[in-house]
Amino acid sequence: MPLTRKPRIAIMGEFSSGKSTLCNVLMGAKPLLEKVTATQLPPVWLSYGPDDAYTMGLDGHAYDLDLAELEQVSLETTEHIRIFMKSDILRYCDLIDMPGISDPSMSSEVWERM
């Protein structure tokens, strides 16, 4: 049976365990923040395509995003971030960089939503 869409691979783990770094290495670029402390970002969905980025708000609307302002995105009001870029690995699969589990500063409401 042929695939109807590319596989989506969610990168999950403890906060500050290298999930974003792994995504950046796989893509051969650095669109994602790499920090020693938790980044407090919603899931970041990476797909192949012309360079573009937006956030999907909890209100169901998409909002343009300048990647230089990635760290400003609110976990409390954003469902996910979508980034399109031309990376070889993204031709074959989408990557989803998930927030770190066991982050004590993340509210239970946010966890339930994800």
Write up what this structure looks like.
With 114 residues, the chain is an alpha/beta fold. The chain has one domain (8-113): P-loop containing nucleotide triphosphate hydrolases (Rossmann fold), CATH 3.40.50. Helices cover 13% and strands 26% of the residues. It contains 2 helices and 6 strands. The chain has helices at 19-27, 108-113; strands at 8-11, 44-48, 52-57, 62-64, 78-85, 94-97. A 6-stranded mixed beta sheet has the order 1-6-2-5-3-4, with helices on one face. A hairpin with a 4-residue loop joins strand 3 (52-57) and strand 4. The longest helix has 9 residues, at 19-27. The radius of gyration is 14 Å and the shape is globular. The termini are far apart.
For the record, the count of structural domains works out to 1
Tell me the number of strands: 6
Question: Main beta sheet: strand number and arrangement?
Answer: 6 strands, mixed
Range of helix content: 10-25%
Our Rg estimate from Cα atoms comes to 14 Å
Mean pLDDT: 86
**Order of strands across the biggest sheet?**
1-6-2-5-3-4
- SSE-based structural type: alpha/beta
Order of helices and strands: EHEEEEEH
**Percent of residues in β-strands:** 25-35%
Question: What CATH architecture label applies?
Answer: 3-Layer(aba) Sandwich
Which fold does the CATH topology refer to?
Rossmann fold
Name the CATH homologous superfamily.
P-loop containing nucleotide triphosphate hydrolases
